[in-house]
Amino acid sequence: MGESVDYLAIRQWDMEDGTMFSDSDTRSAAKVCILGKTVADNLFPDDDPIGKIIRIKNVPIKVLGVLRPKGASMFGSDQDDVIIVPYTTGMKRFAGVTMLRSINVQAATADQIAQVQNSIADLLRQRHRIQAGRDDDFILRNQQEIAETQTAAMDTMTALLAGVAIISLIVGGIGIMNIMLVSVTERTREIGIRMAVGARGRDILLQFLIEAVALSSTGGLLGIGLGIGGARLLTIIKEWPTLISPDSIVIAFAFSAAVGVFFGFYPARKASQLDPIDALRYE
Questions:
Q1: What are the helix (H) ranges across the chain?
Q2: CA distance 57 to 87
Q3: What are phi and psi of 125, to 5 degrees?
Q4: 128-145 b/e with 16+ CB inside 10 Å = b?
Q5: Which of 73, 140, 268, 275 is close enough to 208 for a disulfide, judged by CB 3.0 to 4.6 Å?
C-alpha cells in the first residue's frame, strides 16, 4: 500500500516498534516501508525487522517500523498482512502510474463532514477542469454512505435468507398436511368407532392436531441437531468460530410446532366433521 505520513493518524493505528516514514521520504520517493505484524512475523520470525532490507519486485526496501496488531477487518481479511510504503514510492517504483486511485480524508469533527466533502468536490472539479453541468469523473463517499450501503446489502441478504426459509416452511407444511390427510382417510373407520363410543368432534380435532405438531416438532428437532452438528463441523474443518444462540434454538422449535398447527388444522378439522355412521361404513 502506498500511503502518506498521515495514514496512521487517520486509521488510528499505532506503531509497535520503530518509526513511520517522514515527509521527506515521501517527497523523495524513498525506498522505505513499515510492516504489518503478520508480515513481520512471517519474514522475521526470530529476528528484529527494524533496519533490515526486504525486496518488493526486486526493489530493495528498508524496514523502518512494525505496526501494532489490528486483527481482522469486518470482512474477515487480515489487516496486519500489509506493507506500507510512501505513496510516491508506490506510484513510481511499483505501480508505474502518475495518479492516485483513492484519497482518505478525516474531518476535524463529524459535523464538518458534509462541508469538507463539498469543498473536496469543488477542488477536484477545479483541478480536473470539469465545466459546469458536466458529470464528475471521481466518486466521493463518506463513512455514513459506506455504512448505509453495507446495511442495505445485509438487509438484502437477510431478506433473501428469510424468503428461502419461508419457502422451506411452506413446502414442509404442505408435506405434513398431505400426510395427515392420508392418515385421516386410512383411519376413517377408527374415527367412526371413537365417535360411536362417545368421542366428540373437538376430541378428534385435538388428536390429529397433536399428531401434526408431534410430526413437525420431530422434524424441527432433527433440523436443529443437523444445524448444531454442521456448525461444529465447520469449526473443526475450516477453523471458523461459530456461535449458536439458545434463543435461535427456541425460536426454531417454536416455528416448527407452529407449522404443524397451521398445516395440520385442515386435516384435523376434516376428521372431526366426519359423520360417525358414514365413517363406520367406510371400507
A1: 7-11, 23-27, 37-43, 87-89, 113-127, 143-186, 188-196, 201-238, 246-272, 276-281
A2: 16
A3: -65, -40
A4: eeeeeeeeeeeeeeeeee
A5: 268
141 to 8, 74, 149: CA distances (angstroms): 20, 18, 10
All three cell numbers of 87:
505513496
Look-up of cell digits 372431526: 272
Per-residue burial over 87-118, b if 16 or more Cβ lie within 10 Å, else e, is bbbbbebeeeeeeeeeeeeeeeeeeebeebbe
Structural contact between residues 181 and 212, judged by C-beta atoms closer than 8 angstroms: no
For 129-165, how does the pLDDT look when each residue is reduced to its tens digit (9 = 90+)?
888 888 888 888 888 888 888 889 999 999 999 999 8
What's the confidence (pLDDT) of residue 196?
Answer: 87
What are the tens digits of pLDDT across the range 166-193? 998 899 889 989 999 898 888 888 888 8
3-state secondary structure of 192: helix
Distance CA 217, CA 252 (A): 10
Phi first, then psi: give them for residue 81, nearest 5 degrees: -90, 70
Rounded-to-integer distance, Cα 272 and Cα 201, Å:
4
Residues near 53 by beta carbon (within 8 Å), at least 6 away in sequence: 60, 61, 62, 63
Q: What is the predicted pLDDT for the residue at 169?
A: 86
- Whole-prediction pTM value? 0.55
In tens, the pLDDT along 2-60 reads: 999 999 988 889 999 999 999 999 999 999 999 999 999 999 988 899 999 999 988 99
